[in-house]
Specification:
The chain is elongated. The chain has 105 residues and is mainly α. The mean pLDDT is 86. It contains 4 helices and no strands.
């Protein structure tokens, strides 16, 4: 237990540093294609959780295969869930006579 604790504390500190980097990057005025760079800290965080907290370094091939397939299914489901908001076109609503009279007062 005493040998494992410094590794877990270090992994937690690394997660906090990556979280700070991600929050800092979220407030930067990035161009649209550069926003994909914000995925780098998130992927690194997933790697830290998988290696340090889940202990996948010490597991066999079937366990790693199930962990990777779970992450793949999560990516597929999140991608399918994002299809609607990403591809939805925003059409402005026509201005009605009632709202025009309210704005003029």
């Amino acid at each position: 237990m005493r040998r494992v604790l410094p590794g877990l504390v270090g992994a937690y500190a690394l997660l906090l540093i990556l979280l700070a980097a991600e929050i800092y990057g979220a407030f930067l005025p990035l161009a649209r294609p550069a926003r994909l760079l914000l995925l780098i800290p998130a992927l690194l965080m997933a790697g830290v959780v998988a290696t340090a907290f889940m202990g996948l370094r010490r597991e066999g091939a079937p366990t790693i295969m199930f962990a990777v397939s779970g992450a793949l299914w999560l990516a597929i489901l999140l991608g399918l869930g994002m299809l609607d908001p990403v591809t939805r076109a925003m059409y402005p609503a026509p201005q009605s006579a009632v709202s025009a009279t309210l704005k003029s007062h």
